[in-house]
Amino acid sequence: ILNVEQSPQSLHVQEGDSTNFTCSFPSSNFYALHWYRWETAKSPEALFVMTLNGDEKKKGRISATLNTKEGYSYLYIKGSQPEDSATYLCAFSIKAAGNKLTFGGGTRVLVKP
Amino acid sequence: EPEVTQTPSHQVTQMGQEVILRCVPISNHLYFYWYRQILGQKVEFLVSFYNNEISEKSEIFDDQFSVERPDGSNFTLKIRSTKLEDSAMYFCASTTQGPSPEQYFGPGTRLTVT
Questions:
Q1: In what order do the strands lie in the sheet containing B75-79?
Q2: Rounded CA gap, B74 and A4, in Å?
Q3: pLDDT tens-digit readout, B49-108
Q4: With contact defined as beta carbons under 8 Å apart, do A22 and A66 qualify?
Q5: Cβ separation of A100 and B31 shorter than 8 Å?
Q6: Nearest-CA residue of chain B relative to A41?
Q7: CB contacts, 8 Å: B99 with chain A
């Protein structure tokens, strides 16, 4: 049984502060690690798909790193803004196109002005 | 920008009734999925569909569930006889074929079984 865990479950961040949170996943049979940003009543939005150990990806003020040997990924938000408030989901897959994603429970981020 | 759409956004049904949840995936995508999230739990995989057949299904996806791509654009999930525990947010997703394909999600259908 594949288990993907995210921590913390939720966090409050002051506007302008930076923050990060973790996704841990099985290190065996790894194929890809996905990060999604999900606002209520909207579609989960794909942020990153990461496949290589040591990968670092960036999109604006959000970046992510990947360690497949130890089975974790960090998501960083630099200079948090209220519009960054959302649930951030990570998901793990073990083979290429057509395979299912196994999700973590999400980290709910609330940025306070 | 192309997007996955789902209808209805909210469906209320009585236990034992059949429901059909509809999805229109992105037009050039080849793989289609249904996931669901029961309130307070993780998003969980139900089924994947490729080349007009199921490619993988979870143990949740029992004989009460079926999927269909009836006309080359819609992708549907049918629950034959709903149970209270089927209440959840149901997400459709699609992807093209490639080395690291992103799955693109719809906004979900909230199914409430009373």
A1: B5-7, B19-24, B75-79, B65-68
A2: 31
A3: 988 999 999 999 999 999 999 887 899 999 999 999 999 999 999 998 765 678 999 999
A4: no
A5: no
A6: B107
A7: 51, 96-97
